[in-house]
Design a protein that fits this description.
CATH superfamily of one domain: Winged helix-like DNA-binding domain superfamily/Winged helix DNA-binding domain
Number of strands: 2
Number of helices: 6
CATH topology of one domain: Arc Repressor Mutant, subunit A
Helix content: 55-70%
Largest sheet: 2 strands, antiparallel
Distance between the termini: 34 Å
Order of helices and strands: HHHHEEHH
CATH class of one domain: Mainly Alpha
Radius of gyration: 18 Å
């Protein structure tokens, strides 16, 4: 079997290319976050989601966050414990249901979201280098369509990890 270099991908299996792209993007983001002293922030999507909800005057419960970012409730619970300990989020009792905790982003969390956004913008710029604005928009449109297709087929049927 012929060995492939890191720059060669079997394009007959698109999922392998997507996986490689995802890993490269994630590694670049982690590298930048480490350079900015934000390596302890393991769950930026939770913070992005809480920030958006906060801007709309909404709170979130753990299960709602898990559903919204498509991860298991246990993954969210673990991440929230760390984010709360580090001061990025806070939990409070829901006045209408004592069993439920409302989760909100703190000012430290909001600052982290702003910095993460800068990092994502920089890494996305590297990733999109050489593409025209029209190609970028078309690529995003196609990816959103593929994401919709997969979620339509799998949501509610997938085993959450």
């Amino acid at each position: 079997m012929e060995e492939r270099s890191d720059n060669e991908h079997d394009t007959s299996i698109p999922g392998l290319v997507f996986h490689s792209l995802h890993r490269a993007h994630r590694n670049a983001v982690q590298m930048m976050m480490t350079q900015e002293g934000m390596q302890d922030l393991g769950a930026p999507m939770i913070l992005f989601t809480l920030r958006q909800r906060g801007l709309r005057g909404e709170f979130a419960a753990q299960r709602e966050l898990a559903d919204e970012i498509h991860v298991s409730p246990s993954t969210v619970a673990t991440s929230l414990k760390s984010l709360e300990r580090l001061g990025y989020v806070e939990k409070s009792s829901d006045p209408t249901d004592a069993r439920r905790k409302r989760i909100s982003i703190t000012s430290k969390g909001a600052e982290a979201v702003d910095k993460c956004r800068e990092i994502f913008d920089q890494v996305d710029g590297w990733m999109m280098e050489g593409l025209t604005a029209k190609e970028e928009q078309e690529l995003i449109r196609i990816h959103l369509r593929m994401l919709s297709n997969l979620r339509e087929k799998t949501d509610g049927k997938r085993e959450m990890r």
